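Researcher: I'm preparing a figure for a lab meeting and need a structural model of a single chain. I don't have an experimental structure, so a prediction will have to do for now. The sequence is pasted below. Please return the structure as tokens so I can convert it later.
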Amino acid sequence: MAGRQGQGGGSGDQAGGKRAGLDFPRPLTTVDIVIFTIRLEALHVLLVRRGHADGEPFPDAFALPGGFVDVTRDADLAACAGRKLAEKTGVVSPYLEQLGSWGSATRDPRGWSATHAYFALIPASAAEKTLAADAQWFPLEGSTVKPKLAFDHAEILHAAVQRLRNKVEYTSLPAYLMPEEFTLPELQRTYEIVLDRPLEKSAFRTRMLSADLIEPIDKMRKGPNRPAQLYRLKKAAAPVYFARTFNAPE
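Model: Understood. Here is the structure written out token by token.
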């Protein structure tokens, strides 16, 4: 489960106790979010350091951001995920997807618990703006990070990295990691960072320009070489699914 879960809005009867009209105890119910961005030429994930108040499991350990479902504020699981994302980053993610659910009698020492995991993508330009004091970006090393994670969050992180990399093979998801304005080489480099392998330049360019995803703007990026055309993600653009995976250079 997530960092600061003991302060996540769950009540005693929601978190494992009995409630009027119900004759059975309910498990702890939380939402956790794997938040990705690109920093320093590497894929990063946001982690939070847990508190050390009495009764807090895994004190001072790092964990995925999240917390208890708040039945008075969260209309559904996605709303809870969006709320926790905003609390930790101050931004609304352009892409949020449900990853899966994890639950058992042993994953939380406080009792039987279930968490519903999501993954989110945010641009690097927004990744540093308003992070919560207990939040920190960590680079991915394969599908892991250096800190030992609380609960079963290492397993959830691994699943999220695998889902992201698998979907990037045939979708436009890396576009949601881009700033408002970018060049095609910058977009290709983002794909390569996520996939951890190079891509063939001309085929990538053809595929991106033929998809109903990005549009040129009336600006050029100046540099040591000739100016490069700038693009932006089309408003309300849904992910594009390609018929084939991306090819590496021959």
